[in-house]
Design a protein that fits this description.
The chain is mainly alpha-helical. It has 4 helices and no strands. The longest helix is centred in the last third of the chain and has 34 residues, at 96-129. The radius of gyration is 15 Å and the shape is elongated. The model has no long low-confidence stretch (mean pLDDT 95). The structure holds fe (ii) ion (2 copies). One fe (ii) ion (FE2) is lined by residues 20-21, 53, 57, 117.
Length: 130
């Protein structure tokens, strides 16, 4: 499996968001590298990080009146629900669909970061400057 890694293509030049996104990549990479005995715990940690990460972004959007917040928050909800389904599967010992999810999450994350998170970073940078 291709392992996700941080790159400059993901940098949004807004440190709080970059920090969250970098942490997500680290947790995702750990899940992608995990062997069968490690995958459940790695997935538990990934879901916990993602829930906190999306929750923080959703709060920033609400409190600063970000225009794209509904579509962005909807994508967060859909993905978090999928990851939680994966958690239930991992707890049942169904690891193949979880590995598939770990692969797809890498692709999704790049696209999400470069679109929704990039727009949010731009908004937060101008918001914190004024
Ligand atoms: Fe993010
Ligand atoms: Fe986001």
């Amino acid at each position: 499996m291709e392992i996700s890694e941080w790159s400059d293509a993901l940098r949004l030049d807004f440190v709080p968001l970059d920090t969250l996104n970098r942490e997500l990549i680290e947790d995702l990479a750990r899940a992608q590298r995990a062997d069968n005995g490690e995958l459940l715990q790695a997935w538990v940690d990934l879901v916990a990080h993602v829930a906190a990460h999306f929750g923080q972004e959703d709060r920033w959007m609400r409190t600063t009146g970000h225009g794209q917040s509904e579509a962005h928050a909807l994508e967060h909800r859909v993905v978090l629900n999928l990851l939680r389904e994966g958690l239930a599967q991992a707890r049942n010992g169904q690891l193949a669909p979880v590995r598939q999810m770990a692969r797809e999450l890498g692709t999704w994350f790049t696209r999400h970061t470069q679109s929704f998170d990039a727009a949010l970073a731009l908004h937060l940078r101008s918001h914190t400057r004024t």
